[in-house]
Amino acid sequence: MVHFDEYGSGENLILLHGNGGSSAYFERQVPFFEQYYRVITVDTRGHGLSSRGEGELTLSRIADDLLEVLDFLKIEKANILGFSDGGNIAIVFALKYPDRVKRLVLNGANLYPSGATFKANAYSVRSYIKSFFRKNGKLKREVIALMTKEPRIDPASLAAIRAPTLVIAGDRDLIKTDHTRLIAASIKGSRLCIMEGGDHFIAWERADEYNKIVFDFLKKPCL
To answer: What is the pLDDT along the chain (223 residues), one digit of tens a residue?
Structure first.
């Protein structure tokens, strides 16, 4: 049901894509990181090559899917990089299953819908309206609801995250900069990186710089 691909070998690095996307988003990360890690890209439930399955579509359920992938691959602990909704899933996963996370990279994540900019919310509304004219409109609306109704995470709850964490975003991100700063401030000892001139898709548009920042963080010794 949940599709994933593996590249390279070594320490495990999970890549989680954003809402409405697929693991193809990371095509500029995989060639770099597979030189140093066992990279596992996951198409989340209802996205890419993964099926929708039965029951409710929620970030919590997708986090449980990720646990099943780790168990299937016999991975006790992994580095997790989540982009956009993938970052939200990574937060939910880290709160539910803290012992399974080695390091955490949160790229353009948010704790609640109002953490996104007006532009992002307007895009969601337009996509919702357009979904009524598409063959797979019901699924599309469920996916959009992951942005408009979720996440609902109390910033205070992030104090429970003990994995070393990098919070990274562009200064022109679809997530408000103050909200990104709130996430970083709520996770003890986290590192914050705001890429000047960058938007929501810094991993794609500025891959070399982005990959180096993430790599340097992953390789930094734990204190």
So the answer is: 899 999 999 999 999 999 999 999 999 999 999 999 999 999 999 999 999 999 889 999 999 999 999 999 999 999 999 999 999 999 999 999 999 999 999 999 999 999 999 998 787 878 867 778 777 888 889 999 999 999 999 999 999 999 999 999 999 999 999 999 999 999 999 999 999 999 999 999 999 999 999 999 999 865 4
Q: Is there a contact between 165 and 104 (Cβ–Cβ < 8 Å)?
A: yes
CATH number of 3-219: 3.40.50.1820
For residue 61, give both structure tokens: 């359920």
| Contact yes or no for 171/195 (Cβ under 8 A) | yes
Domain coordinates of the chain in residue numbers?
3-219
Q: How big is the CA angle at 206 (ends 45 and 201), to the nearest 5 degrees?
A: 35
Q: Please, which residues have CB within 8 angstroms of residue 191's CB and are 6 or more apart in sequence? A: 164, 165, 166, 167, 184, 217
Taking the model in full, what pTM does it have? 0.95
